Amino acid sequence: MDAAKETQNQILQMTQFILNEAKDKSEEISAKALQEFSVEKLKVVNSGKDKIRQEYDRKAKQIETQNAIARSTAINRSRLEKIKARQDVISQISGDTKASLEKQLKDEAKMRDFITKLIVQGLLMLLEDEVEVRCRAADDKLVAACLAAAAQEYSKVVEAETGAKKACKLTLDSATKLPPAPSAGHEHGPSCLGGVVLACQKGTITIDNTIDSRLHLVLEQAKPTIRQLLFAGK
To answer: How far apart are CA 28 and CA 34, in angstroms?
Structure first.
């Protein structure tokens, strides 16, 4: 009887031991699983944070780039608008100057004196013995009347400056004519306000002393002054 009771006690103790071991093992497994879950959860959370941060950085850079492009575009547009406005003003000055010249040069005496001076200036650049003078067909009579005075003035200037006597034979070029004056409806075609082109050596050397070329030269030289007067500080 005692042996059976002893055996029963041993079995109960062994069962209790096994249950305790199982319980401890179960708690250990649970703790380890919870720890691994926490680690994985932290990894997932951190990964999610990293993705959100990367997406935020990407969008922030994208917005910054778009803003930079917008600023650059606005600055360039403003610069181009200023350049166009300035060009429009200079074009207006050019147009007003042309209109004023056309009005003044309707006076035949002024025009003849002007043409004579243009021819003399060209002759002093060429220093040739024979020179052809080209003009608009409408100016043939006027220019022909200036040739003798221009040749005489040229000789006088050369002698005054160098002491040498030099003459030049001037002829009106009847084959090559400059374009006609600008007219309504033909603004985009070739035109000429007047003046002359001097040619020598069978046309291989020319001096453009038209009103158009002189006006263009004056405007180019005056652009810095015009900009300073009209656009300083803008």
So the answer is: 10
